[in-house]
Write a structure and sequence with these properties.
five-stranded mixed beta sheet; 374 residues; four-stranded antiparallel beta sheet; disordered N terminus; Neuraminidase; 2 helices; globular; mainly beta
Length: 374
């Protein structure tokens, strides 16, 4: 697979076969998973308040404050209606970069159509006022709405310039939409904090294209993080049967789905689309074949608490029930290690806390917040 011409010189460093990755020296024995809180029903997203408390979403439609000692607060009032079905529900949560001044919280969720016919991913924001969200506004709605309970995507990431990235799934039944620019299915969008379109978005002014779109050709992105040095957006994407991806997700680029992919059709294992390479499609930095790991939340390690992990990216894996650590040399993935496999837990989100510790969410009816201590 070749990158777009502007990045073609980087191809040898960016595309690695699974067999070429080095096994990393294990640091797992030095890490102790400590349960901070439990009793959360399928938690999905985690954000840290300035005072060390945590905001946690539960997929059935609840947003709670979790105290530093792990006590679960009552669900916050003020959320709009949520479709909690299949993979849908209340999903990610982030704080406004200026939260200390404006108290704004952003969350993504599956929103029902007003006529009851279909749903889509939406993003709302509200001002945290005690145990409620005030002045709630919906700032983005994925279009069109469809009747589906799958592939909502839905990570939220603020870039260093204050713009908000929103990852959006292809809704499963509309996978071909990921290759066209007149819809939000299988896309990453970039918006201002109030929902307006940034003037420098790549498709602004292009006939037939939605101006919110940042990148396209995605299947179902459930992990996203900003690189701490470059400020670039990195994402993890679910493939079908194999073909999960780690991508450097750049403006205006096509990431291939469902025409160019390493994934295979469920059950039969037959090829999807044209193959695994095309000149105008961006290659993944890492892909997983033949077995999916089902990647979800991710975080770059910058903390001095884990000197041997510093500079790595950590990815939560649902199907693999592991924390995947990838070592990096610039954009090049140099090795992989699978940690915490003895937890027997689907890891939904990964965050580096303000205290420097790594925190995980486990996806189960009795979901936990887990801190990795040394």
């Amino acid at each position: 697979m070749r990158r777009l011409p502007t990045l073609s010189a980087l191809l040898p460093a960016l595309v690695l076969a699974a067999t070429a990755l080095a096994a990393l020296p294990s640091a797992a024995l030095d890490v102790k998973p400590v349960t901070v809180a439990r009793g959360l029903q399928n938690p999905w997203g985690l954000a840290f308040l300035p005072d060390g408390r945590m905001l946690v979403t539960e997929r059935p439609g609840r947003l709670r404050i979790v105290e530093r000692d792990g006590t679960l607060g009552a669900p916050l009032a003020g959320l709009p209606p949520v479709v909690a079905s299949g993979q849908g529900g209340l999903l990610d949560v982030v704080l406004d970069p200026k939260f200390a001044d404006n108290r704004l919280v952003y969350w993504s969720y599956s929103e029902p159509a007003t006529d009851g016919n279909g749903n889509s991913t939406a993003v709302a924001r509200g001002r945290l006022d005690g145990n409620r969200l005030a002045d709630v506004q919906v700032i983005f709605r994925q279009q069109p709405k469809v009747a589906s309970s799958h592939h909502f995507g839905s990570r939220l990431v603020f870039a260093p310039d204050g713009r908000l990235f929103v990852t959006l799934g292809d809704r499963f039944s509309r996978k071909d939409d990921a290759q066209t620019l007149d819809n939000h299915h299988g896309k990453v969008v970039r918006i201002e904090p109030d929902g307006r379109v940034p003037a420098d978005n790549p498709f602004v002014g292009r006939a037939g294209a939605l101006p919110e779109i940042w990148s396209y050709g995605h299947r179902n992105i459930q992990g996203a993080a900003i690189h701490p040095t470059t400020g670039a957006l990195w994402t993890t994407e679910h493939g079908p049967q194999g073909g999960d991806e780690l991508n450097l997700t750049e403006a205006g680029k096509n990431y291939g789905w469902p025409v160019i992919t390493y994934g295979r059709n469920y059950g039969t294992g037959t090829r999807i689309g044209e193959g695994t390479e095309r000149a105008d499609v961006v290659a993944p930095l890492r892909h997983w074949v033949p077995t999916s790991i089902a990647p979800s939340g991710m975080a770059f390690v910058t903390s001095d608490r884990y000197p041997e992990w510093k500079g790595s990216v950590l990815i939560g894996a649902l199907r693999a029930q592991a924390l995947v650590r990838l070592s990096l040399d610039g954009h090049r993935v140099t090795g992989e290690e699978r940690l915490l496999t003895n937890l027997n837990a689907r890891i939904r989100d990964v965050r580096q806390g303000p205290d420097g510790w790594i925190y995980l969410l486990t996806d189960s009816p009795d979901g936990q917040i887990v801190r990795l201590q040394r």
